[in-house]
Specification:
The protein is of the alpha/beta class and 410 residues long. The chain has helices spanning 2-5, 25-39, 45-62, 76-85, 101-108, 124-127, 150-160, 206-209, 249-264, 267-285, 305-312, 334-343, 385-388, 400-409, and strands spanning 70-73, 92-96, 115-119, 132-138, 163-167, 184-188, 200-204, 296-300, 318-320, 323-327. It binds pyridoxal-5'-phosphate. GO terms for molecular function: lyase activity.
Length: 410
């Protein structure tokens, strides 16, 4: 983990990868040199185009998707709109209550009689019926950090013939992901994948791709983009590249090194690291551990007091939907956890072994009562949880589907 962390300049007291990731040293170098080249009169479009393909290939590796099934994009809502535009009239779309608006709103405003139905995330699989055309959900919820039972939802959709669309924006980068479990996935890579904003990816299986109309086609959707600049753009790419939109060049220049770093990383080790820190933080605050470990911790903070305390100590956290939210990533360590707990008054003694709910802790005032966390579980359980199931430990298992089913069903 220290090797990965060495790719970052900062990170101390930054608990907000769920809002915005930090740029890697490689990203900073690449963007600076791209700017220098442009400023000196030699913008390098060919290099930017190579960066786009390097980013696409690295992302494909990371989410275990064939590279031909990956399209580039810039915003989640735009990718989701492509899917919405291809649904039949009067289709029913099922989403979790309170999921991120960029995933939900394109269906709400699709028109043509398209109906949006919502259900609590925990009951999403049960809510899929034979009348459901598409189940669209985030693998990890932005507002709560809850991890969806993706395997259960995918199985329910397969049973009834519904398609699945999964938003990986809050997951890819810390949670092992197998995009091929879903008909389509979307991801904006500026959070856990530490890319500049404006770098997004759509994966789509060939059978679902056949049902999607390339309504956003432009010159980059052509089989050869540089020969597709005029008129109707020539021949569309035969693979998912026909859903490409033209790339935000500089953003992709910065994205390629970050995505290659994450694709090369041992993601199960990163998962154990991030969820281990989150579990330590929850234990320090006396919060129950969720049924499926998450790198994001949220708790009720209607008055904003917890967020204000963190901010006052120079800790970057966030607040969403009346909850305080912290996130733990590769550039964080135990000291970040303890400093945040200290800021919240949740430890008496700063440092080793000091994870005690102290006098004046926000937890003691009952702010955590009713937090939607699931089954209680020991923080120490998390780093070894793959081992504990007797499933082959923390080295990457052979089958990507095995990894995803494993981590999502815990
Ligand atoms: C689950 C999820 N999807 C997508 C986004 C970003 O949406 P967009 O790419 O439309 O800005 C966020 C941002 O917080 C998010 O949490």
């Amino acid at each position: 983990m220290s090797t990965l962390a060495s790719h970052f300049t900062g990170g101390r007291d930054y608990l907000a990868a769920c809002t915005l990731g930090l740029p890697t040293r490689g990203t900073v170098r690449a963007v600076r040199s791209d700017l220098d080249a442009a400023a000196s009169g030699r913008p390098d479009v060919a290099a930017a185009s190579r960066a786009v393909e390097a980013a696409r290939a690295a992302y494909a590796r990371l989410v275990r998707s064939p590279v031909g099934d990956v399209a580039i994009a810039s915003q989640t809502s735009v990718m989701v709109s492509l899917v919405a535009a291809s649904l039949p009239d009067d289709a029913e779309v099922l989403c979790p209550e309170g999921d991120f608006s960029s995933l939900v709103a394109p269906f709400a405003y699709a028109g043509r009689g398209i109906r949006l139905r919502t259900a609590p995330l925990a009951h999403l699989a049960d809510a899929v019926t034979s009348g459901t055309s598409l189940v669209a959900f985030s693998l990890v919820q932005s507002a709560t950090g809850e991890v969806a039972d993706a395997a259960g939802i995918a199985a329910a959709a397969t049973r009834t013939g519904a398609r699945t669309l999964c938003d990986l924006t809050q997951a890819a980068g810390w949670l092992p992901v197998d995009a091929t479990l879903f008909d389509a996935t979307v991801c904006h890579a500026y959070k856990w994948l530490c890319c500049p904003r404006g770098v997004g990816f759509l994966t789509v299986t060939p059978s679902f791709a056949a049902a999607l109309r390339p309504v956003q086609a432009g010159w980059y959707s052509g089989d050869d983009p540089w020969s597709s600049c005029y008129g109707t753009g020539g021949t569309l790419a035969s693979d998912a590249r026909r859903f490409d939109v033209s790339p935000a060049w500089q953003a992709f220049v910065g994205a390629a090194p970050a995505l290659e770093m994450f694709a090369d990383a041992d993601i199960t080790e990163l998962y154990a690291h991030a969820t281990g820190l989150a579990a330590r933080f929850r234990a320090g605050l006396g919060l129950a551990q969720p049924a499926r470990p998450s790198a994001i911790v949220t708790w009720p903070d209607a008055t904003g007091e917890a967020l204000a305390r963190l901010t006052a100590r120079g800790i970057t956290a966030s607040g969403r939907a009346g909850r305080a939210r912290v996130a733990f990533h590769v550039f964080n360590d135990d000291a970040d956890v303890d400093r945040a707990l200290g800021a919240l008054g949740a430890i008496r003694a700063h440092g080793a072994g000091g994870l005690l709910a102290g006098d004046g802790a926000l937890g003691a005032s009952g702010l955590f009562a009713g937090d939607g966390a699931c089954a209680p579980g020991g923080a120490g359980r998390v780093p070894g949880l793959l081992d504990a199931r007797g499933t082959g430990a923390r080295t990457a298992p052979d089958s990507a589907r095995h990894v995803v089913a494993l981590s999502y069903s815990i």
